[in-house]
From TrEMBL:
Protein name from the UniProt record: Ribosomal RNA small subunit methyltransferase G
Binding-site positions, S-adenosyl-L-methionine: G80, L85, V131, E132, R147
EC identifiers of the protein: 2.1.1.170
Catalytic activity: guanosine(527) in 16S rRNA + S-adenosyl-L-methionine = N(7)-methylguanosine(527) in 16S rRNA + S-adenosyl-L-homocysteine
Function of the protein: Specifically methylates the N7 position of guanine in position 527 of 16S rRNA.
Keyword Repressor tagged: no
Amino acid sequence: MTANDTTLGARLDRGLDELGLEVAPSRRDRLLALVGLLHKWNRAYNLTAVRDPQEMVARHLLDSAAVHPFVRGPRLLDVGAGPGLPGLVLAILDPTLEVTLLDSNGKKVRFQRQAVMELGLPNVTPVQARVEAFDAPAGGFDQVISRAFASLGDFVTLSASLPAEDGQWLAMKGPAVEDELGGLPEKVAVVASHELRVPFEAGHRRLVILERGGSVPA
Ligand SMILES: C[S@@+](CC[C@H](N)C(=O)[O-])C[C@H]1O[C@@H](n2cnc3c(N)ncnc32)[C@H](O)[C@@H]1O
């Protein structure tokens, strides 16, 4: 292990601690390995604008891990997952989740497959498809999540058929999500909206949870 790995590991440990997440050493090491893979493949595949591994720990790992308490699974679909965020992180944290990573971009999905293989994650299935052309397995997904994918209205409209009857959408948004609430389709409503603090990040992450037929305003 290099001095740089030690620094990254210390930053990750502190962040997970701040989030109140206890993570087994083998899983914590896989989270760090994911940063290594993102850093290595970023040069060729342009996976993320974040180039610095220290920054990746906060902006990618901890930001994704912050929503873990709201993920109930077991079947979770990550729409527009890109390099697998937040889905890969959530799958590493909880091996009982069955995570499908969906992206239309071939390079992103090739990276997802590489990460699944190198990190040994049998609970993750990468799929290359456009969300609007993707069919859910029988019964649908328990939760459909996205980060930096689309407006709230577009996310829910494009994935309208994918959650189970009693399933949920989890939208990872910035603090100014109120402006997007008007774009929601009828019969889908916000049932909860959580302000999450991400370690080492200045602003707040907002997690908006939606269900069919919900009626509680944000
Ligand atoms: C800004 S990136 C976000 C990636 C990742 N969720 C993250 O937070 O780093 C948006 C991703 O959505 C994918 N995407 C855009 N339109 C899509 C569609 N209609 N169906 C599936 N994926 C799509 C793009 O290929 C891209 O990888």
